[in-house]
C-alpha cells in the first residue's frame, strides 16, 4: 500500500499507516492531525498531506498502480479524475463520482486507456455477469436491495424515525452517510444512475428489486429469458478482492458461502413511486445533464442536517425535491460544470434545511 486518505478519521488512519508502512497519508481536517499518533511526524521518504484538497494532491503527487476510492460524497470526484487522466485505473466505491460526472469520468478512462472497476457489490455483480456478453443481448439489469431497516413501512410511519434507528442497517456495517442513504433507499437510486453510466443501458432497462437475504447481489436478464446472478455471503471483502485482482481471480478463504444460505431466496417488487428518494433519483437520471450532480449534492446536505437533528427523516426527500423541482436543463460539459452545479445545489438545499429547521422548532415549542 502506497498511501491512504481520510477526511477526519485520524486515529484509524494512523493505525493503518503504521501497520502497512505507507509512504503517504492525506487528511482533509488539519485539526485532527494529532490523532495520527506516530504518523504525526513522517519519517524518511514518507509525507503527510493536509487540507481540503489533500486527497486530490495525494492522487496527483504519489506513484501508484491502482487507486481505490471509497471516499464519501463529492470528495471522491477529483482524485478519480486525476488518476484516470494519469492513465491509472480506479477501483471505485464512491457513488457520487459516477452520479455527478459519469460521462466525463468514463471518457477520461477511455482516453487514457485506464479502467473504472466497480467495488459496490451490486455493480461488481453486474460487471461479472456481463463478462463475455454483448450489451445488445441484455433485456434488463436488476439491482437488488435489502430494503434497509424500514422495508415495508409507509412514509407516514417514518416521520418520527430517530438517527439511531436509521443507522441500524440489518445487513451491512457502513459509514453514517451511506447508512442513512440505505435507509431512505436513496443509495439504490444512486446505484441505478451508476449502473446506467457504467454499463451504458437505457434507464428503462434498469430495475430495482427487494431481496432481504442480500445473497444475490444483482442480476442480468437476457433477451432469451435467461438470467445471470452473482451470489455470495454479504461481505464487501469479496467485491474488493475482485477489483484488486482483476482480470484474475485470487484464491481466497476470506469469504465463504454455505450452500444452505442459498436455500431460501425471496424477491419482492419495489414500487418506486412509494419511495420518494428512489423516485427522485430516476427523475434526475431522466432529466440528465447536471441534474444528477444536483441530486447528489442536495442529499449530502439533507443527510448531514438529519444526522445533527436539524430536520426529520422524511424531510430528506423534501430537501432534494426542492432543489430538483426548478433545476434547469443544462449540459454536463466538464468538471467545472459539475462543481458549479454542486455549489448551487448545496446553497439551495441549505436554504430549504433552514426553512424546515425553523418549522421544526416552531412545532416543538407550541
Q: Overall pLDDT, averaged?
A: 92
The unreliable regions are: none
Q: What is the oligomeric state here?
A: single chain
Helical residues, percent: 40-55%
Tally the helices. 13
| Apparent shape | globular
**Main sheet overview:** 5 strands, mixed
Amino-to-carboxy terminus distance: 56 Å
Placed side by side, the strands forming the largest sheet appear as: 10-9-7-8-11
Strand residue content: 5-15%
Structural class: alpha/beta
Number of β-strand runs:
11
Task: Briefly summarize what is shown.
With 366 residues, the chain is an alpha/beta fold. The chain is built from 13 helices and 11 strands.
Commentary on this structure:
With 366 residues, the protein is an alpha/beta fold. The chain has a domain at 119-147 and 185-270. The chain is 44% helix and 14% strand. It has 13 helices and 11 strands. Strand 5 (89-92), helix 4 and strand 6 form a beta-alpha-beta unit. Helix 10 packs antiparallel against helix 11 and helix 11 (291-307) packs antiparallel against helix 12. The longest helix has 30 residues, at 335-364. The chain is globular and about 60 Å long.
Amino acid at each position: 500500500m502506497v498511501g491512504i486518505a481520510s477526511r477526519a478519521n485520524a486515529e484509524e488512519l494512523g493505525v493503518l499507516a503504521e501497520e502497512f508502512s505507507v509512504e503517504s497519508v492525506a487528511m482533509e481536517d488539519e485539526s485532527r492531525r494529532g490523532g495520527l499518533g506516530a504518523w504525526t511526524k513522517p519519517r524518511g521518504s514518507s509525507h503527510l498531506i493536509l487540507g481540503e484538497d489533500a486527497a486530490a494532491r495525494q492522487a496527483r503527487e504519489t506513484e501508484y498502480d491502482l487507486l481505490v476510492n471509497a471516499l464519501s460524497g463529492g470528495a471522491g470526484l477529483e482524485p478519480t479524475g486525476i488518476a484516470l487522466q494519469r492513465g491509472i485505473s480506479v477501483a471505485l466505491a464512491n457513488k457520487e463520482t459516477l452520479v455527478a460526472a459519469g460521462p466525463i469520468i468514463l471518457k477520461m478512462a477511455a482516453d487514457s486507456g485506464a479502467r473504472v472497476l466497480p467495488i459496490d457489490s451490486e455493480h461488481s455483480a453486474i460487471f461479472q455477469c456481463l463478462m463475455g456478453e454483448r450489451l445488445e443481448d441484455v433485456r434488463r439489469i436488476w439491482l437488488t436491495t435489502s430494503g434497509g431497516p424500514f422495508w415495508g413501512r409507509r412514509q407516514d410511519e417514518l416521520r418520527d424515525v430517530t438517527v439511531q434507528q436509521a443507522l441500524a442497517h440489518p445487513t451491512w456495517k457502513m459509514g453514517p452517510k451511506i447508512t442513512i442513504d440505505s435507509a431512505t433507499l436513496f443509495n439504490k437510486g444512486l446505484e441505478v444512475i451508476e449502473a446506467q453510466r457504467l454499463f451504458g443501458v437505457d434507464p428503462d432497462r434498469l430495475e430495482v428489486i427487494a431481496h432481504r437475504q442480500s445473497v444475490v447481489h444483482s442480476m442480468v436478464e437476457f433477451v432469451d429469458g435467461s438470467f445471470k446472478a452473482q451470489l455470495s455471503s454479504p461481505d464487501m471483502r469479496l467485491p474488493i478482492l475482485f477489483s484488486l485482482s482483476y482480470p484474475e481471480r485470487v484464491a481466497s478463504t476470506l469469504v465463504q458461502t454455505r450452500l444452505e444460505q442459498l436455500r431460501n431466496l425471496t424477491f419482492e417488487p419495489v414500487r418506486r413511486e412509494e419511495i420518494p428518494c428512489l423516485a427522485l433519483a430516476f427523475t434526475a437520471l431522466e432529466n440528465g445533464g447536471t441534474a444528477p450532480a444536483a441530486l447528489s449534492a442536495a442529499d449530502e446536505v439533507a443527510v448531514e442536517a438529519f444526522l445533527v437533528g436539524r430536520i426529520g427523516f422524511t424531510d430528506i426527500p423534501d430537501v432534494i425535491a426542492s432543489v430538483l423541482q426548478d433545476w434547469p436543463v443544462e449540459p454536463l460539459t466538464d468538471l467545472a460544470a459539475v462543481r458549479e452545479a454542486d455549489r448551487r445545489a448545496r446553497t439551495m438545499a441549505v436554504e430549504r434545511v433552514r426553512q424546515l429547521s425553523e418549522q421544526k422548532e416552531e412545532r416543538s415549542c407550541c
